[in-house]
Amino acid sequence: MMSINHFLIFTTLLFLIGLYGALSRRNMIGILMSIEIMLNAVNLNFIFFSRFLDVPAETAQVFAIFVIVLAAATAAVGLAIVLQIYRNQKTIYTDEIDLLKW
Amino acid sequence: MNSFAPLVSVVQYVLMFIVLGAAIVTVSIGNLFRAAIFLAFTLLGVAGLYFFLHADFIAAMQILIYVGAIMTLVIFAVMLTGKMQDPLVAQSNRQKIPAFIILCGVSAFLIPTILKAPWRTLATPHATTAANLGRALMGEFVFPFEIVSLVLLVALIGAIATARSDE
Hints:
The structure holds 2 protein chains of 2 kinds. By secondary structure, chain A is mainly α. Chain A has a single domain (4-96), classed as Helix Hairpins, CATH 1.10.287.3510. Chain A has 3 helices and no strands. Chain A has helices at 4-24, 28-52, 57-89. In chain A, α1 runs antiparallel to α2 (28-52) and α2 (28-52) runs antiparallel to α3. In chain A, 52% of the residues are buried. The mean pLDDT of chain A is 88. In chain B, 73% of the residues lie in helices and 0% in strands. Classes of the chains: A mainly alpha, B mainly alpha.
């Protein structure tokens, strides 16, 4: 059985890798992919706590299902917005889309 | 525990390293299509870790929804914006080093907290079945379940309305 500290540090590192991608990518699709990595790290934590800590297993797994559903909704809406911006602005680089910047 | 326990532990650690490596490639590689492929490997590795944590239903959902549906969406979006994937254009902004400093700060705060926290682990780990999960969704969590299905419906209608062309 693996140690709880090792697993929690692993999910922390996975979350931070996703955060790094979200902060440093220029491409909007790349940012969305980094957000998916972050959501996965959080989900892994939920499932891990449900197995080894004093939380009912169903509760944590239901939360994980909700997170997966909301991630799917985020991906659908986010990629639709990306496609529409690409159609209108001919770019999906975040530093070139400055319509709202005064 | 049976005699396979050390082997299972080794496989788990190998899987964790594969997930971390694939995630690092995903956020750092220049070619976005390759990043999407490595994201698929990351998500598959996470699904494998769910199997080791005895969350079979979540692992199946992970493969179906993430690797099946979301990855298809992402690859479609990458291909539809093909002109943006020019390898000569920088794929990361100038915030690389500030981002890295922020990460170091956050991990310097989080990792000691994890190590110091007094986790009270169970003697016998929890496990549940898909049937119990379904009962929880239809019983205790029926209201959030309905809300989340409404959110999904609204998001899908919104995605269609946003993505269609105006003429």
